[in-house]
């Protein structure tokens, strides 16, 4: 029985996610780059099994290479579709993965880069020759459950070419709402969050304290070192905010090192009191936000979303009598 288009696209999107994880790993130095081989093999196996299931082809007792052969047999029986090429190269990738996983033999950087080209090309051919899909049209964003986050990620992609500022803002809001919405759904019956690490200190800076809470400090007869107090307040505020953010990212189980890179590219939105729209402190110089930055940020947000979705839960409330 044929699978629905929604299921096909979701599973292809996940295979593409593994391919792109492999592409990231392939850039690392040896021997870490060899991890890419595992991602490539898993991605292609997932895609092969999807096709076999969708086309009602029995995959029991078949090897990895036999999956590939069965798919090409189906393609040849359904002209004018064109069979997937590069069987010898695929077999070579498979053997490199076996050497790594079962014999502890690492591949050279050159071999890993060759495997990257093979895996990407075969996946692109499979999508095109079986489903008439361009890989670029298979969106990893479909893997994200949160509709608001999906919407901002789509906006970031669509605005990238014409308005990089809007693309960056959309990415910032996507990440902001991903964490906020997850946290808000995990509160106790008293409204307390398990991810609470101190009150928001956005407006507790020296400027607001000086003007709103200690107005008499401007009195010339008052002997008080306002500048030193202001410096102390700002340093304490910045330190506490940094620790709050770091602890929260770690508590969510997210990759903190990737978060650092993300935060260096994407500014954090600042929510003014009473305003529905956030403020962004964008750099005054020309933005060097390229396609690689866009892909990294989108993939990081998707990775975070999958991590949160991996252990999502709802709290059962007992009705008050």
**Helix/strand structural class:** mainly alpha
Helical amount: 55-70%
Strand content: under 5%
The count of helical stretches stands at 11
Mean pLDDT: 87
CA distance, first residue to last residue: 50 Å
Major beta sheet, specifics? none
What is the strand tally? 0
Low-confidence stretches: none
Question: What would the keywords be for this entry?
Answer:
60% helix, elongated, Four Helix Bundle (Hemerythrin (Met), subunit A), mainly alpha, 321 residues, 11 helices
What's the quick description here?
The protein has 321 residues and is mainly alpha-helical. It is 60% helix and 0% strand.
How would you describe this structure to a colleague?
The protein is mainly α. The protein folds into two domains: 5-138, Four Helix Bundle (Hemerythrin (Met), subunit A), CATH 1.20.120; 143-310, no CATH class. Helices cover 60% and strands 0% of the residues. It contains eleven helices and no strands. It has helices at 5-26, 35-54, 64-76, 87-103, 109-131, 147-159, 164-184, 206-213, 226-251, 256-265, 291-310. The protein is elongated and about 80 Å long. The two termini are 50 Å apart. The mean pLDDT is 87.
């Amino acid at each position: 029985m044929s699978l629905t288009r929604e299921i096909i696209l979701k599973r292809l999107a996940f295979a593409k996610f593994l391919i792109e994880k492999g592409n990231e790993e392939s850039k690392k130095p040896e021997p870490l780059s060899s991890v890419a081989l595992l991602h490539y093999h898993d991605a292609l196996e997932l895609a092969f099994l999807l096709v076999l299931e969708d086309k009602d082809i029995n995959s029991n007792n078949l090897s990895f290479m036999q999956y590939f052969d069965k798919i090409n047999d189906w393609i040849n029986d359904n002209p004018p579709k064109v069979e997937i090429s590069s069987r010898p190269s695929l077999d070579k990738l498979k053997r490199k993965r076996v050497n790594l996983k079962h014999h502890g033999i690492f591949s050279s950087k050159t071999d890993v880069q060759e495997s990257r080209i093979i895996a990407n090309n075969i996946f692109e051919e499979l999508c095109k020759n079986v489903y008439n899909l361009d890989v670029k049209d298979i969106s990893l964003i479909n893997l994200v459950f949160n509709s608001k986050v999906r919407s901002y990620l789509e906006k970031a992609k669509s605005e990238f070419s014409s308005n990089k500022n809007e693309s960056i803002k959309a990415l910032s809001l996507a990440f902001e709402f991903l964490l906020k919405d997850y946290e808000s759904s995990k509160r106790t019956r008293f409204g307390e969050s398990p991810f609470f690490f101190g009150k928001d200190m956005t407006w507790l800076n020296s400027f607001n304290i000086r003007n709103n809470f200690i107005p008499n400090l401007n009195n010339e007869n008052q002997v008080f070192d306002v500048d030193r107090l202001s410096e102390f307040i700002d340093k304490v505020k910045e330190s506490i905010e940094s620790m709050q953010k770091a602890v929260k990212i770690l508590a969510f189980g997210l990759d903190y090192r990737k978060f650092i890179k993300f935060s260096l590219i994407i500014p954090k939105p600042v929510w003014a009191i009473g305003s529905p729209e956030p403020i962004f402190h964008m750099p005054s110089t020309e933005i060097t936000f390229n396609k690689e930055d866009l892909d990294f940020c989108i993939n990081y947000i998707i990775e975070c979303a999958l991590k949160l979705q991996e252990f999502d839960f709802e709290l059962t409330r007992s009705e008050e009598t």
